[in-house]
């Protein structure tokens, strides 16, 4: 965390990645922040122009637009699937934040979160106190069998999720000794530390890793390999469960995609198929768009986070739903808080919890 | 006169008062992102970016700019490919992003009225809700604005059957450089009162006025739309097939071609299983009612077979049609992956000379030692020769590509064609415009420009300059 050399203009970005953008602008309509402002600077194309200006020295490293736009970006990567040139925007953003948020320039709340995430023992204790799933301590993960990843914050924020996952898939080993996947670090200015943590987690859980967090899945897959990482709805895709009924009808449910699961790993059919099997599935018009949680974003930029969330809450309420389903703990927290603020009757749940309810 | 484009503090204060402080951007980083559009190699940093809310604010901005001789560059989504929105002389970029409301769709009059910053896709979606559609479909329709489409007279894949943007513009609200707000045309199909100012503004690339509202004609959404493709040994044969299809009395909604180099790039990128040694791919499509589409497909397939097609495939349903269209849709992405700099160009020739033109392009590219692949609209003779360079820093390669393109454009003119079919002139083609129009017409363009914009503030360095 400390002592690492600050990247210098001219060597911040991977030149091959930075040169890919052809500035066609196809990303503009997919970008939530461009949707809010209509300003080129807050579009993916504009941000790549800014990255290039930083790299070439056209703009000084302390330029305020660079600082603002690198932080205003949600990092949802909705620009990637629509990009005809195959720009890996998520990678570029990690490299950009690695520069903009190096050391003391990182927002305080992000520093606190990273500090907390680094205390693996604290998660273990919190997880135990809150009753997250676990197999007996010191059970080593087996190299052959799949194991369940507990996540750093999900373990204490939503301990029921891992219990549900375990109930749905009892064959999963759940070693208590497992750290953070590093996505938090990578997306918030410490790409190298992120990769290191992902590597460590990959060693702690040597076989197939099943995760209940779309964000963690995408990051972990990018570092240790797609073949070793499976998101829960992918893992359960071929199983069948019961039904969720409200009175004499099937429950109405909608999915909120996890951005990185959808845009990074291309997983979006699987959770829909599972939900369609257990309830009346409703596709929200903006299901694939970011909810504004975006990792640390809801804490770093609460006002913008709510501006992104609000139209989504309108859609959720207009659709007459019983449940809106998340496949990532950050989205779950964001939706739950937003719906609570509105005193909405719609409940936000994690897909693991709803499937478990259907299986009962 | 326009050289010192720095804007004085009192003028900035007035601009701030007109559009609101949050809609005026002046920071170096905020300006840097407006230095370019989708066209490579053209740059110019503006001095200010302003996003007005309506025609009234646009009028006040233009009056101020005329008074102080400050360039104004109207900009929609910045997705054009002719450097039409690059602020070559600095000045004020006028973004239409906030004028993004669909005013009405009137099914009984088969028209829609929208503010200039509405995307083409959004306009078409609004029409679709009434069983209608807006036929021009430029490749960038998900991002491009209707105002930008009118300003460049955008084309698309359906040009042969349905025409281009100009065929659908019924009326425009335009703010002149001197601040008058005029309403050209209206909502009538027949209206010959006065010069056709609506058509003059269409394709004027922001040099005659700022379009703030557009009224377009709509058509009933066809029930069925289907696609097929045919392979030929050579583009010459494909060209003969195009003539054969039209001679059989069919006007297909889509008639696209890919040369061998495009097919190679697409295959390498998307592994679609395209024919491995055909010289040309012809993609055809038609829409209408089920029986009519079936009938035209029979005739198209017969015409292709008569002209020696190696293989003809027709889609059974919408999903298969989409799959066939993929080859055309991913041509540019596939080509762009061959290098870091992709120069996508645009020229048109009379339909019967398409194959000859592609052969000439290949010879020119070989002579200048550049890689050029060509695809485009076989039905209307509109080609997109595309040059890919390994590195954007290869100045010597760029110079060779520019020399090659200069020859491509003069060749197009020599064959009775033009220097741009649908991308526009902008700053990119202005050096070639006189070759196409001649001195007399160039002088007329300048006089028209002066009549609309006496101080020459609107998009300087483009048409009429």
Describe the structure in your own words.
The complex is a heterodimer of chains A (360) and B (465). Chain A has 360 residues and is of the alpha/beta class. Chain A has helices at residues 15-19, 32-37, 44-56, 64-72, 89-100, 108-118, 120-130, 154-157, 159-168, 183-187, 191-204, 214-224, 232-235, 259-264, 269-278, 297-300, 302-318, 329-341, 351-359; strands spanning 147-149, 209-211, 229-231, 245-246, 249-250, 252-256, 280-282, 323-326, 347-350. In chain A, helix 4 packs across helix 5 (89-100), helix 9 (159-168) packs across helix 19 (351-359) and helix 17 (302-318) packs across helix 18 (329-341). In chain A, 55% of the residues are buried. The model of chain A has no long low-confidence stretch (mean pLDDT 92). Chain B has 4 domains: 9-98, Uridine Diphospho-n-acetylenolpyruvylglucosamine Reductase, domain 2, CATH 3.30.43.10; 102-220, Uridine Diphospho-n-acetylenolpyruvylglucosamine Reductase, domain 3 (2-Layer Sandwich), CATH 3.30.465.10; 224-257 and 270-319, Alpha-Beta Plaits, CATH 3.30.70.3450; 338-414, Alpha-Beta Plaits (2-Layer Sandwich), CATH 3.30.70.2740. Chain B has helices at 9-19, 28-32, 55-68, 120-128, 146-152, 159-162, 197-201, 235-247, 260-270, 290-306, 318-329, 331-336, 354-367, 395-414, 430-452, and strands spanning 24-25, 48-50, 72-75, 92-95, 102-106, 111-115, 132-133, 169-176, 181-185, 209-217, 219-220, 224-232, 254-259, 280-288, 311-314, 341-344, 347-348, 372-377, 382-389. Residues 1-5 of chain B have low confidence and may be disordered. The interface between A and B is medium-sized, with 31 and 37 residues.
CATH architecture of the largest domain in chain B: 2-Layer Sandwich
- In total, the number of strands of chain A is 9
Q: What is the ordering of alpha helices and beta strands of chain A?
A: HHHHHHHEHHHHEHEHEEEHHEHHEHEH
Largest sheet of chain B: 8 strands, antiparallel
Shape of chain B: globular
Instruction: State Rg of chain B.
Output: 23 Å
Number of domains of chain B: 4
How many strands, which pairing sense, and closed or not: the largest β-sheet of chain A? 4 strands, parallel
Share in helix of chain B: 25-40%
Q: In oligomeric terms, what are we looking at?
A: heterodimer
